Amino acid sequence: MTEKIQAIRGMNDLLPSDTPRWAWLEANIRAVFGQYGYQEIRFPIVETTGLFVRSLGEVTDIVEKEMYTFVDNLNGESLTLRPEGTASTIRAALEHNLLYDGPKRLWYSGPMFRHEKPQRGRYRQFHQFGLEALGFPGPDVEAEQIILTARLWRELGLRDVELQLNTLGNADARASHRAKLIEYLSAHIDKFGEDETRRLHTNPLRILDSKNPTLKNVIADAPTLLDYIDAESREHFERLQALLRATNIVYTINPRLVRGLDYYNRTVFEWVTTKLGSQGTICAGGRYDGLIEQLGGKPAPGCGFAMGVERLVELMKESNVNTATPTVDAYVVHQGDGAQQAAFGAAESARDAGLEIVLHAGGGNFKSQLKRADASAARYAMIFGEDEVTSGKLSLKPLRGQGEQTTIDLSQAIESIKQGRTHGCI
Ligand code: ATP
Ligand code: MG
């Protein structure tokens, strides 16, 4: 036998048993984003490598080791499968001059690609929904984004998520802190792994993000950035917190929260849960005031976040969230050529009336067809046989719960199916 081809490790199929939950989640996210006036933007899955190197920073996990980068054979250009959406959103906004008449609220969704070690909650192709507010200095728009996510968790029925906040201050604050941090960390170089040694002078802040257990105490006692924050950033952070308190958003300040990417300044935040093991961050973001200029635009502030759909779906399962899923209205069974013709016509009429109909295909006797109808998600069977064709009627058989089989006109059948329409649960 020929060997079967398998999907690439860390890149998952979504089967019909998963897709209703995903679709429900996606519809809810879109609806909430829309409620806050965010507009959708779609950009390509492949971009020039330089876009990500320039925006994320050379010394970040993504650029150092996670990007799917390849050379376009046709012209030798270096291309990369997008690992995140912020860089592309800004690239597209600048390319199409979207900011010419003022700030913009934008959102995106779709697959992202990172060459990571696959494990629960961490995949090589994963999916994000993200949004970006371009041209807003904040902190109002940061508060709005956080309030929006809190609403989303309520809509989704997700509990046990905690908001963590921090401020990274301005560039000067980070520079002073950086000097102190290098001095402090240099005394512990014996405990460093390869990553930390390399980062000591290039990106020491990232060492605070390290998951290396031998560094736990070193990290805990490291000088915290919060002590170096400039007055303006401090005020900005205070105002954000006041807005959150005014809208009853509970948060904790985590001085160790530095985020993985270079482009952040001032506010950073993460929504985390303890229910998903070590991959507990479901949503993360912050402010990136220098990024638009860094990508060739006129200086303009920005902030945004991205959430991981796989982790949200897992958390929905952990939280036993029931998602309504449409069932099929009727499964049409038929036997004989005349009945088949009548069944085709009736199925189209029922669809004209807005019903979801599965028409039996592939022949077989009534018994086997009704078995299929039972096994399907349909609420009714519509039965067409010799008798029905002669009488111009059909038999309507409820497949779920009580109710007798009746022989009725098509229009009556459509009406009763419509009346009994409810939505089942997964
Ligand atoms: P982590 O620290 O878990 O690697 P990150 O800081 O790299 O996360 P971001 O770039 O901020 O993640 O992406 C935003 C969100 O996207 C994360 O909070 C997470 O929910 C999700 N995410 C990131 N990487 C993956 C992945 N490889 N697989 C599944 N989801 C992911
Ligand atoms: Mg990561």
Question: What is this structure, in a nutshell?
Answer:
By secondary structure, the chain is an alpha+beta fold. It has helices at 19-35, 49-56, 61-66, 86-95, 140-156, 171-186, 194-202, 216-220, 231-246, 291-294, 309-318, 337-352, 366-375, 386-391, 410-419, and strands spanning 39-40, 46-48, 69-71, 78-81, 104-113, 125-134, 162-167, 251-253, 265-272, 281-287, 302-308, 324-325, 330-334, 357-359, 380-384, 394-398, 406-408, 424-425. An 8-stranded mixed β-sheet has the order 1-5-6-11-10-9-7-8, with helices on both faces. A 5-stranded mixed β-sheet has the order 14-13-15-16-17, with helices on both faces.
Keywords:
15 helices; 426 residues; binds magnesium ion; 38% helix; alpha+beta
Please provide a written account of the structure.
This protein is an alpha+beta fold and 426 residues long. The protein has 15 helices and 18 strands. The radius of gyration is 28 Å and the shape is elongated. The site of adenosine-5'-triphosphate has 19 residues, from strand 6, strand 10, strand 11 and helix 11.
